[in-house]
Write a structure and sequence with these properties.
Keywords: NADP, Oxidoreductase
Shape: globular
InterPro entries: NAD(P)-bd_dom_sf, SDR_fam
CATH topology of the domain at 8-90 and 125-143: Rossmann fold
Strand order of the largest sheet: 3-2-1-4
Strand content: 5-15%
Helix content: 40-55%
Distance between the termini: 21 Å
GO molecular function: oxidoreductase activity
Protein name: Short subunit dehydrogenase
CATH class of the domain at 8-90 and 125-143: Alpha Beta
Organism: Flavobacterium lindanitolerans
CATH architecture of the domain at 8-90 and 125-143: 3-Layer(aba) Sandwich
Length: 147
C-alpha cells in the first residue's frame, strides 16, 4: 500500500445500486474515485450526483481493450490505485422485455440455457478476474516475488 496520503479507488459497475453507494462513500471519505460504467453517459450522471473527486470511466469488464484503457487512464492521471472494488455483475443475460418469471427462471441452473450461463460467468467470474489481474501488477511489488 502507498504511504502517500492521496487515495484513489476504482469501483466497477458504479453508476447505480451498491456500486454507486460504495463510490459515494469513498468520495465522502477523501478518495479520488473512478466510477466504472459500461455506459459512459450513465457514469457521468453518477459523477454529477456524487460530486467530490469522482471521475466517470467507461469500463466493460468483459472487454480486454476497455480494461486496458481504464488501466492507462488511472496510471496516467493518478499513477496508482489504492482500492479496487469489483462490483460489476449481471444476474442474467436475457433479452430485454422478458417477464419477471422468465428472468427468474433464467437464474435457475437446471433450466437456463448454457449460453446464458456462459455469458453470466464471463462477466461475473472471468471479467472480475481480468480486471483484478490488470491492476494487480501495480501492487505486486509489495506482495509478490518477481523473477
Amino acid at each position: 500500500m502507498h504511504t502517500n496520503e492521496r487515495k484513489t479507488a476504482l469501483v466497477s459497475g458504479a453508476n447505480t445500486g451498491v456500486g454507486f453507494q460504495i463510490a459515494k462513500a469513498l468520495a465522502d471519505n477523501g478518495y479520488t474515485v473512478y466510477l466504472g460504467s459500461r455506459n459512459l453517459k450513465k457514469g457521468e450522471a453518477a459523477v454529477a450526483a456524487i460530486g467530490g473527486l469522482t471521475k466517470a470511466l467507461q469500463l466493460d469488464i468483459t472487454d480486454n481493450d476497455s480494461i486496458q484503457a481504464a488501466v492507462n487512464v488511472i496510471e496516467n492521471e493518478f499513477g496508482y490505485l489504492t482500492v479496487l472494488v469489483n462490483n460489476a455483475a449481471i444476474s442474467n443475460a436475457g433479452k430485454p422485455g422478458r417477464t419477471m418469471q422468465e428472468i427468474l427462471s433464467a437464474q435457475l441452473a437446471s433450466i437456463t440455457s448454457i449460453n446464458e450461463m456462459k455469458t453470466v460467468w464471463e462477466t461475473n467470474v472471468f471479467g472480475t478476474l481480468a480486471i483484478t489481474q490488470a491492476f494487480l501488477p501495480w501492487n505486486c511489488s509489495l506482495i509478490c516475488h518477481k523473477n
